Amino acid sequence: MQKNRLGMRVLLPADRIQARVAQLGQQIGADYAGLPLTAIGMLKGCFVFMADLVRQIEAPLHVDFIEVSSYGDDTISSGVVKIAKDFKHSIAGQHVLLVEDIIDTGLTLNTLIEILQARKPASVRIAALLVKSQKQQLRYPIDYRGFDIEDDFVVGYGMDFRGRYRNLDHVAVLEESQPELFPPVPGQQLEG
Ligand code: IMP
Q1: Which residues make Cβ contacts (< 8 Å) with residue 63, sequence separation at least 6?
Q2: Which runs of consecutive H residues, i.e. helices, occur in the chain?
Q3: Which of 37, 46, 88, 184 could pair with 61 as two cysteines, CB 3.0-4.6 Å apart?
Q4: Ligand 1, atom 16: nearest CA belongs to which residue?
């Protein structure tokens, strides 16, 4: 089992992620060839995936970001979301690709897609690097999925625990048996 320099179990090394993101980008570029495309990243967790993914898409596209706040405890989504940062660009008549780092329950996306549909895009599709399927309640198909993973809490490649570990270039598992890796920040709300 590969460990990173912090002693975490490496689930997806950087080279495996890069290879898969390149495949997804090529597929997306081919599917949207000639169509007006807007890629919307869900902050903050998407920022690394988004940067790598859009550079693999050959079709011209707009890039924008949205940030939603989810209320729950540190690791469980409540599905009650509020838009903390919206984008100004109109998506009416545009094909929208929502870019998400990880889908767990899918409750965040269910709400966000309803909000975006009201803005009359031509279509909305989902690209997610990671999908945890055990608790899946997503009402929409995941059109572009990087990897299906177990129900572990993961960090790195943009994903955090209490704001930390986003800068790892790989995906690692945060295990309860390693309490020294859990930053003690009580009362902080889950970041996107
Ligand atoms: P969902 O609404 O349950 O699908 O939760 C989605 C959001 O929860 C993601 O965008 C992440 O911000 C966060 N999340 C869920 N699982 C993990 C994880 O294993 N690591 C880091 N963040 C996670």
Answers
A1: 38, 39, 41, 50, 54
A2: 14-31, 47-54, 107-117
A3: 37
A4: 104
The domain locations on the chain are 14-149
Cα 40 to middle of ligand 1, angstroms? 17
Q: CATH: 3.40.50.2020, 3.40.50.10490, 3.40.50.2300, 1.10.10.10. Which one for 14-149?
A: 3.40.50.2020
Question: For 67-111, how does the pLDDT look when each residue is reduced to its tens digit (9 = 90+)?
Answer: 988 665 555 666 677 899 999 889 999 999 999 999 999 999 999
The model's pLDDT over 157-187, given as tens digits with 9 standing for 90+, comes to 999 999 999 999 999 999 988 888 887 765 5
Q: Specify the pTM.
A: 0.91
Residue among 102, 151, 153, 164 whose CB has most ligand 1 atoms within 8 A, to mutate: 102
Q: Which residues pair with 127 in a beta bridge?
A: 99, 144
**Residue that has been written with the tokens 């898969």 in this structure:** 20
First to last CA, the chain: 29
